[in-house]
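Re: the 196-residue chain
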Amino acid sequence: MKRAFLVVGNRAWTKPFSLNDIPGAGRMDVLCRCVSQSLFISHGIRRNVNVFLLLLGEPDPPKVVRIDGGSVKRMSPDERNVAGHLRKALGVECGEEWVKVHSGVYVARKSPAELLRELSGDYSVYYLREDGEDIREVVPSLKNPLFVLGDHTGLHEDIERIVMEMSAKTVKVSPLSLMAEQCITIVHYELDRLHF
């Protein structure tokens, strides 16, 4: 079963940024940690996982960076390394079609609705939110899930409306408001305990 995560970076920059100030690039540090928690395990990488980062910050939104766990190379879990890959992707000219940056990393220009329409052909979409259905009740029925979550500010109302329309269900991993990367770790735990 393949899995994917779509993380919305509400203010994440859409141009190359300094690796000496990753948080200053619209909290790109949050997205880097989400990538690490999505893809990496001890001494390995989850080959069945894809990560999509929807970047909505200045100066040139929207852009999407896609990282394919099955083919990504030379990426390590530390924040600076992940940020380097994202920075390189943002320096590549792109349109609506995916452009390969290097092994396993792609960039494109897609609106939230366009991206979700495309992904819903390959995945069942689930929105992670505190008031959703308990993930343990949902996990047994999941088939190729894509989990949508926001950065440290959640999802803005207009994007949330699109996500709600396209989601199979709203799912929670905790009644508390957790950090995005913590939610991803818990989702993996729940899926792993059932499928392994």
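Helices lie at 28-39, 79-90, 112-119, 135-138, 157-166, 180-195.
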